[in-house]
Amino acid sequence: MKICIAAVGQRLPPWAAAAVQEFVERMPRDFRVEVKEVKPEPRNGQPVARLQVAEGARLRAALPADCLVIAMDETGRDWTTAQLAEAMGQWRDGARDPAFIIGGADGLDPQLKRDADLCLRLSSMTLPHALARVVLAEQIYRAWSILSAHPYHRS
Predict the structure, then answer these.
(1) How far apart are the first and last CA of the chain?
(2) Which of the residues 10, 15, 98, 154 has the least number of beta carbons within 10 Å of its own beta carbon?
(3) What is the DSSP letter of 112?
């Protein structure tokens, strides 16, 4: 399974970049994770809708062909880690490679969210962008650990 995390933003704080990299490097070869950073649209007083559309186009371009698109958004479904692990097992068994997308400071393009196969949220609370990326990477690793009966996740 090839897992993609496509996120708007190219400069994470060093602590966040190190944490994401740590979880990506822990993943085994058969659950490879690739992080694709997408350039944010310059603000320059542009309307939010225009920013979202421009960033949405960049996110779409970063996605692998025929992937399962999972939009990460505060309005998405609230899954447990066990539910994520179950879904990842089904995607793996069905040969569906997931791509998780994280929008920029103004969120995801509404059309991109509508076109996504699934919309999830990481928390009912608002998370800083860098922390959201770390939490997502950790949860993907934890879901793999559940599927693999790895001791990282103890239930």
Answers:
(1) 24
(2) 154
(3) H
Calculate the alpha carbon distances from 120 to 14, 40, 69 in Å.
Answer: 26, 22, 11
Residue 127 has pLDDT above 90, yes or no: no
φ, ψ of residue 120 in degrees (nearest 5):
-120, 160
Mean pLDDT score, 96-104: 96
> What is the CA angle 20-115-101, rounded to 5?
5
CB distance 35 to 5 below 8 Å: yes
CA dihedral 17, 18, 21, 25 (to 10 degrees): 180
Domain annotation for the chain: domains and CATH numbers: 2-147 (3.40.1280.10)
Tokens for 142?
């934890």
Check pLDDT > 60 for residue 74. yes
- What band does 126 get if pLDDT is binned at 50, 70 and 90? confident
pLDDT at 96 over 70: yes
